[in-house]
Amino acid sequence: MFSSLPFQRAKDLGHVPGAIPSEGSPATTESGQLTQTGTAGRQPAEGGESLPKILTVPIKRVTGMSRFLREKCLLSAQQVTDVLRDSPAIVLEDTSRLEYRFQYAYFRMGIQQEEMVKSGLFRVSTEEVRCRHSFLERRGLYQTPDKKGQTRIANPKLKDFLTIPEDSLLSQVALATQEEFEVFRKLMEREVQEEEGLESSDSEEEDEEDDESENRGKEGYKRRRK
């Protein structure tokens, strides 16, 4: 699970100068005025029904999302502004899922922040990102870059397969049928469910081990008291 990965490669992303944008800076000013700039009227690739909720989001939450994008995704102040302007529904997202999406794109797909922002990564659901990428990967059309950022094939640009209509993805990039993609999507959903089930099982086992350890400690304490 990428959300649990240590961020040991964060330094590879490059140091982002500057502090978290303060009240009145371009990032917070523009993000805090979504309705005034007209960006609230843009429908994102996901969560279109959430747009009315954005109008009532407190500035504290917008500022918190700005800080999250700077600290966890290591975006520059301008990139944060661009994301909040182009993908306003992001302020309603769960940050753990957002961090997973970022780490998936960076570690598994080899995508840098600049391309993520320009290609609309933050407008697309994590499930759709993973599904489209995995579909291309298993068809031999996408490779994870090595440590030097190189691949044996020319990977398609993120913008050329992530935010385009599904029929364009299949006819222009994947060269596959709708039926093939639907079958693959169902397989991916099953894989995700199995992964989540394993993680849940591991978590329960850890809790049981902790309980057993605590009970043994209590029993030992009682024996010593006697």
TrEMBL record:
Residues 13-52, 192-226 are annotated as: Disordered. InterPro entries: MTERF_sf. It comes from the Eukaryota. This is Uncharacterized protein. Residues 25-40 have a biased composition (Polar residues). Residues 192-213 have a biased composition (Acidic residues).
